[in-house]
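Quick start: what a row looks like.
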Amino acid sequence: MERDLVHPEAKQVEARAVEWVDSFGLYPDAVERAWGLATHSADFTCRIIPEGKVEALLLFAEWNYWANAVDDWQDSGSEEVGTGAVVEHGVRLLRTIENPGASLLPDGPMTRALVDLVSRTHAMLSPFELRRFTEGTRDWLLGAAWRAARAEEGAMPGLNDFAALGPLANGTRFSLTWSDVAREDRLPAEVLYSPALTALTDAAGFIVSADNDLFSYDKDDHLEPPEVNLVNVLAHREGCSPAEAVPLAVALRDRVMVLFTTLRARLADGADPRLRRHLAALGHYVAGCVAWQGRAPRYATPRNRYGLPSAEARLAVRYADVPSVPDREAPDLPALASWWQWVGD
């Protein structure tokens, strides 16, 4: 997997996406705008999809700026953002994607921007692609609601529950749909939803979710009760500090990464060109997320520590040629262990 691939039209995509954001007044003031742009949503888009149609990337980048604004609202810790509010907004958002004329959300910049996104998405995607995108959005919103519910209860979930449900909030299929759309690759449903490729996709989602929990930890470490993320779940399980739980999180992430690379290589053996491109795209998704998060001021200068993001801030990312643990066998977690059946001997 290449570490520093980025779409050659990334600057164009970013400029046009920011112009779109400003045209809808997505952020109420200059400070909120600075933090919204600090997500580097266009950079995320162009790193996980380093090739493909510019118009598809642009629409996906705009979705990401919008979705990150929703994510920040969900993670704000405000008393008004409880589980009920997250679920209420989520179900209305989903039905708006499926039925744009339903008029389910209150008027305002966010809703007007959403209506524009949904209209253009319906025009660009095939019915099958639109269904995939909607399913990916449902994953994101269900995962966010589940995390919100656990935080509201003040009950840190068990590791197996978190491994199965926590990564949903990452919206892996939300993103991967656009990767195929941009490349104009359309895998048959029986291939795309085959058990082995489903396992590989879920493994990619777990890795990216684990990486995000590590990169974003400082951004949310002021919340009370604590943020429901992999580090805090492991700290609670092991009775240790979050700092002591970080190596455990990396070890579990690396174990799944070994499974991912092994299974991806097995599926690529004898695959047709379309499937090979899809498998490569999964690698871009994993590697691109790491490269993006290391460069995004959202994580390098978190809002709970800085008044404004620093455009030049970076997080040091150390790459290794071998995993942090030698284990290649399935972990003792039913939510993850089933993926190993597709690797073979």
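That is the whole record. The chain is about 65% helix and 0% strand. The two ends are 24 Å apart (CA to CA).
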